[in-house]
Each structure stands twice: as structure tokens, then as C-alpha cells.
Amino acid sequence: MDDKINDKSLRTALLLAAFSALGPFTVDMYLSSLPTMMHDFHTTASLIQASLTASLLGLGLGQLVAGPLSDVHGRRKPLFISMLLYFLVSIACAFSPNIGLFIVLRFMQGFVASAGLVISRAIVRDRYSGVEMVKFMALLTMISNVAPLISPTAGSAVTSFTSWGGVFLFLGILGLILTGLTTWGIKESLPAEQRAAGDFKDVFKNYGSLVRNRSFMGYALVNGILFSGVFAYVSGTPFIYQNMYGISPQLFSVLFALNGLGIILGSQLVKQLSGRLNEHHIFQGGLLLAVITTATILIVVLIHGPFVALFLAIFLFAAAIGIIAPVSFTLAMESQGHIAGSAAAVLGSLQFALGAVTSPLVGIAGENSAVPFGITIFMTSILALISYVILVRRSADATPASQNS
Prior knowledge:
- There is one protein chain.
- The protein is mostly helical.
- The protein has 2 domains: 8-184, Growth Hormone, Chain: A (Up-down Bundle), CATH 1.20.1250.20; 200-396, Growth Hormone, Chain: A (Up-down Bundle).
- Helices cover 82% and strands 0% of the residues.
- It has helices spanning 2-20, 22-28, 34-40, 45-73, 76-94, 99-127, 130-159, 165-185, 201-212, 214-244, 249-273, 279-302, 307-333, 340-358, 371-404.
- The longest helix is centred in the C-terminal third of the chain and has 34 residues, at 371-404.
- This is Bcr/CflA family efflux transporter.
């Protein structure tokens, strides 16, 4: 009997993980095609990177909409509509006649893909609690970290026998499969009597209280700002690796996957250190590593240093993200149990919204300059450090004083 329960749980976890991985596939799968697309569209590196920005912005804003919609209308209906729209928009991306329309479609693609990220986690919250929920969230987190490893490789595999449009046809087919899985594989997990009212007034009230919470916003901003550095890397390295260092699209995909492995290794280090070191100390160590590695990246690009030095610095920066992400999420969510859904949406949306800001900055000097990338990624760690000091450390230092008065 237990084996049957475990098999069912595994199938459910893998099913939800497929929806959770849609975001990374949407962002990463076409990365190795960016230089080719720039020439096909007869546009600039900055404009072609704006298509990445648009998808990130869509993923960020979409989470803030899809979550509350699923609270009002249940999980299946918004998920089904979103996946069907994802299929249609992805096909439209494949046949875009110009860069302007492509950017608009990429925003729409990211917006509807965000439903997979938010609603898959909402279903977990509906169905599981305690240790079971921890296990499911751990699996979904692992998949979200593995997806960026395989999505660029899958994209380069597709473009090895077809054009970049084939990547979006592949994504369209993926959306169609997920539409079918929603119809036949997902059961409604939120009964009608437990759904929220159609009035979004309470939702905005919760968001307002989170914004006013200095500690929460401090950790959320550190997490979001540093992840915007990851998106700067995602946007800039296809041009830097291939145009400046002569890396092939296939090798680029392998190197991109290795940096994704850095995030996983950082997360595993946190797992080993938890219980032995204070979480705040682990967080501070990860933040220090981010500052050191991004400073190294800036120096390497300024002197046009060897590729190995640049790659190792980016790999260690990815490891720093792997350290900071789970700890910052835990520290931010500690006192937000009563509005955990809204808090999770803010944390997730900030990553993509800030990533939408940094992504186009790395291309402002053209496709053959890495200096804007170096400056942008270094500034993310500095701004993250400032956010931590002002919002978290000062707030913590002020607490004892207020208690003693």
C-alpha cells in the first residue's frame, strides 16, 4: 500500500515539476541562437536582448496575477487557459516577421508561462503539509535548478538541424503537452468553498504589508538583485563567449550548464552547513563571495583577461547564488506564514522584474564589448550588499534598543 502511495506521489511531483520548469525553458532555450537571431532580424544586440527582458518582465508580472486568479477560480481553469495560450504564443514567436512583434510576443509568452511556476506550488500547498510538503518543494526546487542546465543544450540540439524558429515550435509543442496534462492529469485541488472572493482588495493589502516589512524586503531585494545578476549573465554571455572568445554554440551550452551546476553545488553546501552554522552567517558568507567574484569578473573583462578566469569567476558567482537563494528565502518567509502565498509571489516576481532591468544593460555598448556586463554584474552585488545593510542589519540592530527602552 505504501509503495502505491509513494508511486502516486512521485508521479504527482514529476507532473508539477514539468509546469515549474516551463519558466527556465522559456528563458534559456533560445540563448545560443541570440547572435543568429540578431542577424536574421537585422537588429542590434541590445534589441535582441530586449526580447529576453520582455520574457523576464512577463514572468515577473504574471506571477502576481496568476496566483490570485488561481485562488479565486481554482487551479485547473487558469492553468489550462495559460498553457493553451502558451502554445499559441510560442508558435507565433516562431514566425515573427520583425523584432518589434517578437519582443511583444516574448512578453506574452513569459506572462502565461508564469502560471506554471505559481500554480504548481499552489497545488503543493493545497495537497500537502508538514514533512510531505517540504519533500515536494525540495523536488520542485531541484527541478527548477536542473531545467536551466538542460534547456540551452536542448535549444542548441534543435538548432543543429533547424533554425531558431524550431526552438519556439518545440516550446509550442511543450505547451500543448502541458495543456493535455492539465486536462487529464491535474485534479482540482482547491474546493469552491475554500476559494477567495473575486475582490482583490485583500490581495493588494497583503502586498502593501510586505513592502512595509523592512526585514522581508531586505532579504527579498538581496535575492532579487543578485538574481538580476544571473539574468545579466544569461543575456550577455552568449555574445561574450561566442563573439569575443570564439566559443561554439554547442560548447556554450555545455559551459552554461556547468554554471547551472554551480548553483546546485552552492545549494548543497547550504544543506551541509545548516545546523552547524547560523543561517545568518551562511547568508553573509554567500553575499561576500558574490561581491568578490563579481569584482573579479569586472577586472577580467576590463583587461580582457583569459577565458578560463572569466568562466571560473562566473562559476563561483553561480555558487554564491546557490548559497544565498535558499537561505534568503527561508529568512524572508520566517514571519510570513499567514500570507505565505503573497510573500512567495513577491520573492519570485522581484527576480524576474529586476532581471528585466539588467538584461538590456549588458548590450548597450554592442555585441563585442563585455565592459557593460562586468559593470552591471558587479553593481548587482554592491546594491545587494547595501540593501542588506540598510534594511536587514540596521533593522536588527534597532530591535534590541527598542526592546530595552
